[in-house]
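Please decode residue identities from the backbone states below.
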């Protein structure tokens, strides 16, 4: 797995070690960040929830985000994220939280202009997570965008609180949805 664009383009990333995990492919990450070119997240803060290997947040840093916070529950995965940040030169522009993504939202130091979620496909309460993101005070910037990757077998609503669906893309079994704060 490699960084697909920006300052760290081509750098190898260690993958996830979790059984059954399916990290976001390079093709899908490239597509996500091509679409994100329409939004203003460069020189701003990003949040990578259910971070796994940290590939989405690292991609955001590589392509111009000033800072990224990573939230991952598994201690060994947090070590992999830290290693990937060190390898790409972004350790000084990030913080890794070992925590449950659904419980840490109100303690994070927002607002974030870009929030990336790629939870396990088995997680069926993604809608509840989006509700918590929308209702957490000061978490999402007024011009913020929330990107959610999930299985094509899961259908999300067109809005969660102040988050409105702006774009829906399908890549094989992967669906990526873009919610904007309005």
């Amino acid at each position: 797995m490699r960084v697909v664009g920006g300052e760290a383009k081509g750098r190898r990333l260690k993958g996830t070690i979790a059984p059954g995990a399916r990290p976001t492919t390079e093709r899908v990450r490239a597509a996500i960040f091509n679409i994100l070119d329409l939004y203003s997240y460069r020189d701003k803060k990003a949040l990578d929830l259910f971070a796994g290997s940290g590939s989405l947040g690292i991609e955001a840093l590589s392509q111009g985000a000033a800072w990224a916070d990573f939230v991952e529950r598994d201690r060994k995965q947090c070590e992999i994220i830290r290693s990937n940040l060190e390898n790409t030169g972004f350790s000084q522009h990030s913080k890794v939280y070992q925590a449950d993504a659904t419980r840490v939202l109100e303690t994070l130091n927002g607002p974030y202009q870009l929030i990336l979620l790629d939870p396990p496909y088995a997680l069926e309460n993604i809608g509840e997570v989006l509700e918590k993101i929308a209702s957490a005070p000061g978490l999402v910037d007024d011009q913020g965008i929330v990107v959610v990757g999930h299985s094509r077998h899961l259908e999300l609503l067109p809005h969660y609180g102040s988050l409105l669906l702006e774009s829906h893309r399908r890549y094989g079994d992967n669906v990526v949805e873009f919610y904007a704060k309005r």
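Observation: The chain has one domain: 26-181.
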